[in-house]
Every structure is written in C-alpha cells, then in structure tokens.
C-alpha cells in the first residue's frame, strides 16, 4: 500500500505570490510577484484536472496500442458569484493527434478517466457540471 498522504509546502514570496514545492523539489509559482504573473490558485485546479485526465487518457490509449503523438487539453471553468466561488461548470476539450488513432478508443479512454480514474475530476464533479469535447486531428491538420 502506498502512503495515502500527499504533501506540499507553499512559501509566501511577497505580494500575492506563493512558491509551491513538493517533496521531490518540483516548484510552481502561484500568484503575482514583482510584475511576474504566476498561475492563479483556481487556475491551478483546472491545470490539475487537465494533467490528471491527460495522464489517464494517455495510459489507457497506450494499453489499447494507440500511438498518440500530440495531446493538448484546454479547460475552462465558470465560478459561482458568491464566496467561496467554487467552479459550477467546467468544460474539458481534448485535442489529439496520432498514428491511425481510432476516435472510438479515444472516447472510451476519456470516459474511463471521467468515470473511474481521474481523482481531480471526481472531486470537482461534486460542485461542477463537467462536460467534454474531443477532436482527433490527422497528421496534416494544424493544432489549435
């Protein structure tokens, strides 16, 4: 069994900026510091959703022997007007490119991520309606 606890440290850097560090030393700047814009705390949540589901989708497609060469996930969220201003609607757009990718396999991978594997999506789904869209590009189509 793995250790269920996850830990980060967030050190105030001045202004509205914090430097988030995990146990392995990886860091992310959250908030603005001396004119340098970092990612906002609620944007980090959307980024976490994209990374969580993206990892799931790639792993599932690998098991299905689908060769993905490019994956971009755009996520947008609508927050409530009243504090604590949680997300009430989130849309996840998947844009994939690969060698002979089967759209049916991609759809199944996304569904498995949404319904079974993505812990970030499961948490956000408690307060937000999450919708998805998908685009599978051929090798000669430009990505957005």
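Sequence proposed for the structure above (144 residues):
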């Amino acid at each position: 069994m793995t250790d269920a606890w996850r830990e980060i440290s967030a050190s105030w850097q001045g202004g509205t900026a914090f430097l988030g560090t995990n146990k392995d030393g990886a860091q992310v700047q959250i908030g603005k510091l001396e004119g340098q814009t970092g990612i906002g705390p609620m944007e980090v949540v959307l980024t976490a959703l994209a990374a969580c589901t993206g990892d799931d989708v790639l792993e599932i497609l690998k098991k299905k022997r689908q060769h993905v060469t490019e994956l971009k996930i755009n996520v947008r969220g609508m927050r409530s007007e009243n504090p604590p201003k949680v997300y009430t609607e989130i849309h996840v757009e998947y844009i994939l490119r690969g060698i002979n990718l089967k759209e049916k396999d991609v759809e199944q991978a996304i569904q498995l991520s949404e319904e079974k594997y993505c812990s970030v999506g499961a948490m956000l789904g408690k307060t937000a309606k999450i919708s998805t869209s998908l685009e599978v590009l051929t090798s000669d189509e430009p990505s957005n």
